[in-house]
């Protein structure tokens, strides 16, 4: 669980109005790492239930995050490296545990996940993974990407992917900040930051 009581209580399904239910059913569901369309039978995640207290904001933000997750141009492995590293650097328990499940469904090993916590200089990374992690770390610590790291990314990514990369990092940083600051609770069975 996120330390402390939630600062804003999430809405339950019964508390949602028609707009809220429409927004909820338009969201995805992480089914043990498999991303699928949400149904009315799925529980309302605490994060979504919290965000639905500000439906106007959530109506704009959710499709943006969904587009990056489901229709982004960054390769899936790179995307999950970004999500995991951002979650770890921000100590985003909910984000981390959700993306550990997704990463495993995409072929990550437990050792891969553990190595994300150690960063780009850990032994065992392929050069392609190392550069993604380094770019995340640079953005997190300095707000930009150094020229050598950018050049390495540009050898692999086209212009659209290069634009998307810092956007992806920023979106998941924002998500972690919101979840952390609002003390959004998560299912403790997911393991939080201990998940591997």
Automatic annotation (TrEMBL):
Carboxymuconolactone decarboxylase-like domain: residues covered: 55-123
Cross-referenced SUPFAM superfamilies: AhpD-like
GO MF entries: peroxiredoxin activity
Membrane spanning residue stretches: none
Protein name, per record: Unannotated protein
Organism per entry: freshwater metagenome
């Amino acid at each position: 669980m996120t330390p402390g009581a939630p600062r804003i209580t999430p809405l339950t399904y019964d508390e949602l109005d028609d707009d809220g239910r429409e927004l909820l059913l338009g969201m995805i569901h992480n089914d043990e790492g498999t991303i699928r369309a949400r149904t009315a039978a799925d529980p309302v995640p605490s994060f979504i239930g919290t965000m639905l207290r500000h439906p106007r904001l959530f109506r704009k933000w959710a499709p943006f995050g969904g587009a990056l997750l489901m229709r982004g141009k960054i390769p899936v492995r790179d995307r999950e490296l970004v999500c995991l590293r951002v979650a770890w650097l921000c100590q985003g328990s909910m984000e981390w545990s959700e993306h550990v499940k997704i990463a495993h469904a995409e072929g990550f090993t437990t050792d891969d996940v553990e190595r994300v916590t150690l960063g780009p200089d850990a032994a065992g990374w392929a050069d392609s993974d190392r550069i993604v992690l380094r770019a995340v770390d640079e953005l997190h610590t300095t707000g930009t990407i150094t020229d050598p790291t950018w050049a390495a990314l540009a050898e692999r990514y086209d212009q659209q992917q290069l634009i998307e990369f810092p956007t992806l990092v920023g979106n998941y940083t924002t998500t972690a900040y919101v979840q952390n600051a609002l003390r959004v609770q998560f299912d403790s069975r997911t393991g939080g930051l201990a998940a591997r």
